């Protein structure tokens, strides 16, 4: 590559790196817009879910989600409740009687709690995968990607998205899986 070519391309390359859009092609931008629209319109009410914690333990119950709000009502392994809204979450464990309040600003789950949801600015799309019939998109906080990663996996049939799995990778590189639908 000639020095002149490098000088001409350098500003465009640096701008792409600064915005995190260097590898995003038009189809990826389109897929990001589809997922963003899905998240903004989502009205999941009492959807059965199963969860696998990083240690391999499993549980489940019912999930309710809409932009800015998430409620996980566990029935297995015992009655527990996680309710997140905006920038905070409360976890209640009926077995121990404990109640834990947590901020979502430094939790990967927080990337899904915007209202309205935006998959740009404070949230960065780090990867999009499209095996046949699937759309998988990974999201992180733009300012501190080391805080974790959320991967949403959708069935993609005829352009219609159906969320069926959420993977949350925390700052310690532990993964939690939530699968929607009957176990």
TrEMBL record:
<keyword id="KW-0732">Signal</keyword>
<feature type="signal peptide">
    <location>
        <begin position="1"/>
        <end position="20"/>
    </location>
</feature>
<protein>
    <recommendedName>
        <fullName>Outer-membrane lipoprotein carrier protein</fullName>
    </recommendedName>
</protein>
């Amino acid at each position: 590559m000639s020095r002149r070519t490098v000088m001409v391309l350098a500003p465009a390359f640096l701008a792409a790196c600064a915005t995190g859009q260097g590898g995003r092609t038009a189809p990826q931008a389109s897929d990001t817009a589809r997922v963003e629209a899905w998240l903004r319109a989502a009205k999941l009410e009492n959807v059965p879910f199963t969860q696998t914690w990083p240690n391999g333990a499993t549980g489940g119950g019912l999930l309710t989600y809409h932009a800015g709000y998430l409620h996980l009502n566990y029935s297995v392994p015992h009655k527990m409740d996680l309710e997140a809204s905006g920038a905070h979450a409360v976890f209640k464990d009926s077995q121990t009687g404990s109640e834990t309040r947590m901020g979502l600003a430094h939790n990967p789950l927080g990337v899904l709690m915007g209202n309205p949801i935006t998959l740009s600015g404070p949230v960065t799309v780090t990867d999009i995968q499209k095996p046949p019939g699937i759309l998988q998109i990974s999201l992180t906080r733009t300012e501190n990607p080391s805080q974790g990663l959320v991967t949403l996996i959708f069935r993609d049939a005829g352009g219609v998205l159906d969320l069926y799995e959420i993977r949350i990778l925390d700052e310690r590189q532990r993964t939690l899986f939530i699968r929607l639908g009957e176990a």
